Amino acid sequence: MPINWREYIVSDSDVLRGKPRVKGTRILDGLVLGYLAAGNTYE
């Protein structure tokens, strides 16, 4: 079952100058993707 990433990643010009972030937080999506690419798990 595919996950709809649009439910979790948002971009709003009023928050973090419009950079993509995890919905409801100020955590940049690139930060999360970087951790996963480095071999860390989502737990």
Give an overview in words.
With 43 residues, the chain is an alpha+beta fold. The protein has one domain (5-37). 21% of the residues lie in helices and 9% in strands. It has one helix and two strands. A two-stranded antiparallel ribbon has the order 1-2. The relative contact order is 0.16.
Concise structural overview:
This protein has 43 residues and is α+β, with helices and mostly antiparallel strands. It is built from 1 helix and 2 strands. 21% of the residues lie in helices and 9% in strands.
Which terms would index this structure?
globular, 9% strand, 1 helix, 43 residues, 21% helix, two-stranded antiparallel sheet, alpha+beta
Fold topology:
Blueprint (H helix, E strand, L loop, with lengths): L8 E2 L10 E2 L6 H9 L6
Antiparallel strand pairs: 1-2
